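Async update (no meeting this week)

Hi team, since we skipped the sync, here's where things stand on the single-chain job. The sequence we agreed to prioritize is pasted below, unchanged from the tracker. I ran it this morning and attached the output directly underneath so nobody has to dig for it. Comments welcome in thread, and please keep replies under the output.
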Amino acid sequence: MSVREFVVLGTASQVPTRHRNHNGYLLRWDGEGILFDPGEGTQRQMLRAGVAAHDIDRICVTHFHGDHSLGLAGVIQRINLDQVPHPVTAHYPASGQKFFDRLRYATAYRETVRLNEEPVTADGTLAHGGSYTLEARLLSHPVESFGYRVTEPDGRRMVPALLARHGIGGPDVGRLRREGRLNGVTLDDVSEHRPGQRFAFVMDTRLCPGVDALAEGCDMLVIESTFLDEDHRLATDHGHLTAGQAGRVARDAGVRHLVLTHFSQRYPDPDEFGRQARAAGFEGELTVAADLARVPLPKRA
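Output:
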């Protein structure tokens, strides 16, 4: 049975708090796991969330600020310590290669797992997984930063009423799906288009074309909302978004489920981020992320 869920390991921006760890997120997509932005303390949060090193197939780093990458050293060493049986691929901005190298070899350890380095140099497709395509888009931050998008290929949904009209049932349904035609009946005659699921991960950035491209039509958008709207100038100066801006992005992009995260320690009430996103006009499902939360992706449309 396929599982698609988003596991939150940490939600703090810049510094951890008593209740929020540095960033860290795992997307479970069927049989694969994509670890995003492992900040300091990610190993321990994985343990608390029931995430094993064996669950990681890809690591995607948006940029090389410490709260998004200082956990890389520990995660990479844990992957090797646990002798993960499959290769792991790492994506990160190519401009930060020296930082990746330092983190990968921060201390001595025995390498037992093949870690493939695939740095990101520009917008475009990074990989084709078994049931998804991984893409990157450039964001706007004081250091080079990329957001990521996971897209399932579009498919077909069988329509029972149309199958019955054409007298097709039982094993013949599978045969028609495989072969595309059966006794003069085509797959198009008995099915309808089903868009693939779409997920986007947008971290530290100002508003920019990359944000809109990543968010467009997403079933789930995970996006930073470091500041509240009253501090929008501060957000722009430091290369971040406000909760209201995140809400408007999701509204305009037709997002089904919005997940807000990466909260500044200056705000005592995390629910205010959700209220401001709603005030901006977002009407879909909304989650204000908390450490160790598990958020299922919306069911396919």
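Quick observations from my side:
The chain has a mean pLDDT of 96.
The two ends are 18 Å apart (CA to CA).
Reply here if anything looks off.
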